[in-house]
Write a structure and sequence with these properties.
It is a single chain. The protein is an alpha/beta fold. The protein has 2 domains: about 120 residues, N-terminal domain of TfIIb (Single Sheet), CATH 2.20.25; about 280 residues, Rossmann fold (3-Layer(aba) Sandwich). Helix content is about 35%, strand content about 20%. α10 crosses α11.
Length: about 400
C-alpha cells in the first residue's frame, strides 16, 4: 500500500484515522502520469517534502510500497498489510500473524500487546453473514487462469463498457478518483490503468492478490495509480465523499441487503459525483430456468467448493455448445463468446454464492431517487443484468449508513 491511501481510508469499525507501521518497503516503477505534484497526498506521508502550494509533494508516495506491515486506528483496531494490500476485514489480523510474526518484535511493546490480544476472538456477525461469500468468491476467482477473460470481454472492451456505463468519455477521467467496489478479477483496474484516473479497488475475496499480480505484470509503469484494499462492502473502510466516481458491477446482489450495500457505497461519493451499479435483472430472467436454477442452488450453495468446481466443469462444455449453437442458429450474438474455462466461471458464479437477488429497473431507479441522485438513466442491459447511473446531488447527512446485520 502507498501512504497516499491514508487520505481516503478510515477504520471500518470506528471510523477513526489510521497510522502505519511498515515492516517491508519495496520500490515501484515511476508512473508517467504523475507529474507536477498531482495527485497530492495530504496526510500521513513520511517522506513527502512540504510545499506551500501542494502541502506534500508525493512523487515518492507513488514509488514506494509498504509490502508488509500493520495499520492501527485511533481506537486501537489493528489490520495487517500483506502483499502490499491492507486487509480490512474482521479476524484478518489473526490470520496474518503467522506471516508477520518475524516483524512483530519491531513494534512498540504496548502496541504489540494490544494487537495480539485482538487475535483471540472471532467476529460472529461476519462469520454468520459474510464468510461464505468470502470463501465462495475467493474460490471462484482463484480458479480463473491469468489469461482467461471474465465474462468474455478483453481489456479494450471492458474500458469501453466502463465509459458507456458511467456515461463519460475517456478524456473525462484524468485526475478523477474512482472507487471500484467489488473488483473481482481486475478487468476494470487493467482497463483504467493508463487513463490518468486514480483507482481504488476493493473486494472481500482473496482475488485482490491476483489483481495486484496482474497489474504488476501487465501495467507496471501505471500500477502505482491503482490502490487495492481487501474489505467488505457492508463495512467499507473509505471516508464519506472521498471519490468522484463509484462503480459496482455484479456485486451488490450478492450481499445480504442490496440497497443497504448501495447506500454505503454511495456515501463514499462526492456531491455531484457519478454513481453506477449493476445488478441481476428480474425483467430478463427465464422463469422456468430460474426455478430450476434455484432448486439446484439449494444443494450447490452447501457443497464444498472443490466439488462444486468439478460439477461446473462437467457442465461447462454443454453450456458452451448451447450458447454457440444458439448464436449460430439465430444469427444473433445473445451470448458472448467464451472458452469452456470461462463457462465454468459463469456456472460457479451462479451456483456458489449464498445471496443472489434480482431487481427491476424501476426498483433500482427508485434507490437512486431515495439517495438523492439526478440524471438517472439505465446505461446497461443484457440477458442477466441491468446497470443504472446517476449524479449525486445530496451530501451526507452526518450519519454514515451502518452494516445491515
Amino acid at each position: 500500500m502507498r501512504y497516499r491511501l491514508l487520505d481516503v481510508l478510515e477504520c471500518p469499525e470506528c471510523r477513526s484515522s489510521f497510522r502505519v507501521f511498515p515492516f517491508e518497503i519495496v520500490s515501484l516503477p515511476s508512473n508517467p502520469v504523475i507529474k507536477d505534484g498531482r495527485p497530492v497526498c495530504t496526510q500521513g506521508c513520511p517522506w513527502g517534502q512540504v510545499d506551500p502550494k501542494f502541502k506534500h509533494q508525493c512523487q515518492q508516495c507513488f514509488c514506494r510500497d509498504v509490502s508488509s506491515g500493520v495499520i492501527q486506528c485511533g481506537q486501537n483496531h489493528f489490520f495487517p498489510v500483506v502483499n502490499g494490500i491492507p486487509r480490512l476485514l474482521p479476524n484478518a489480523m489473526a490470520g496474518a500473524v503467522p506471516l508477520l510474526l518475524q516483524h512483530l518484535n519491531n513494534l512498540p511493546s504496548d502496541v504489540r500487546d494490544i494487537l495480539l490480544s485482538q487475535t483471540r476472538t472471532k467476529d460472529k456477525n461476519f462469520e454468520k453473514y459474510f464468510k461464505h461469500t468470502l470463501d465462495s468468491f475467493s474460490s471462484e476467482w482463484g480458479a480463473m487462469r491469468e489469461s482467461e477473460r471474465a465474462w468474455g470481454r478483453d481489456i479494450p472492451a471492458r474500458r469501453k463498457l466502463f465509459l458507456d456505463c458511467v456515461d463519460m468519455k475517456i478524456e473525462d477521467l484524468p485526475g478523477k478518483k474512482i472507487l471500484d467496489a467489488g473488483c473481482g478479477h481486475g478487468e476494470v483496474e487493467l482497463a483504467l490503468a493508463e487513463t490518468g484516473a486514480e483507482v481504488f479497488a476493493t473486494d472481500m475475496s482473496f482475488s485482490v492478490d491476483g489483481v495486484k499480480d496482474r497489474l504488476g505484470k501487465s501495467e507496471p509503469a501505471y500500477a502505482s495509480l491503482v490502490h487495492i484494499v481487501q474489505s467488505n462492502i457492508h463495512k467499507l473502510p473509505f471516508k464519506q465523499e472521498a471519490f468522484d466516481i463509484v462503480h459496482s458491477a455484479g456485486v451488490l446482489h450478492h450481499t445480504p441487503d442490496t440497497f443497504r450495500g448501495f447506500e454505503i457505497v454511495s456515501s463514499c461519493l462526492k456531491k455531484d459525483g457519478v454513481g453506477y451499479i449493476e445488478v441481476y435483472s428480474a425483467e430478463q430472467k427465464n422463469p422456468i430456468a430460474y426455478a430450476i436454477s434455484n432448486a439446484i442452488r439449494v444443494v450447490t450453495v452447501r457443497l464444498p467448493h472443490p466439488v462444486l468446481h468439478l460439477f461446473c466443469f462437467a457442465g461447462a462444455p454443454f453450456l458452451w455448445l448451447y450458447t454457440h449453437s444458439y448464436n449460430a442458429l439465430t444469427g444473433k450474438k445473445l451470448y458472448s463468446e467464451r472458452t469452456v474455462y470461462e463457462m465454468e466461471l459463469s456456472l460457479f458464479d451462479n451456483f456458489s454464492p449464498r445471496y443472489q437477488y434480482h431487481y427491476t429497473t424501476e426498483e433500482v431507479v427508485d434507490w437512486f431517487n431515495r439517495l438523492g441522485y439526478s440524471n438517472i438513466s439505465k446505461t446497461f442491459e443484457n440477458k442477466n443484468g441491468i446497470g443504472v447511473v446517476g449524479t449525486k446531488r445530496t451530501g451526507p447527512k452526518g450519519v454514515r449508513p451502518q452494516d445491515s446485520k
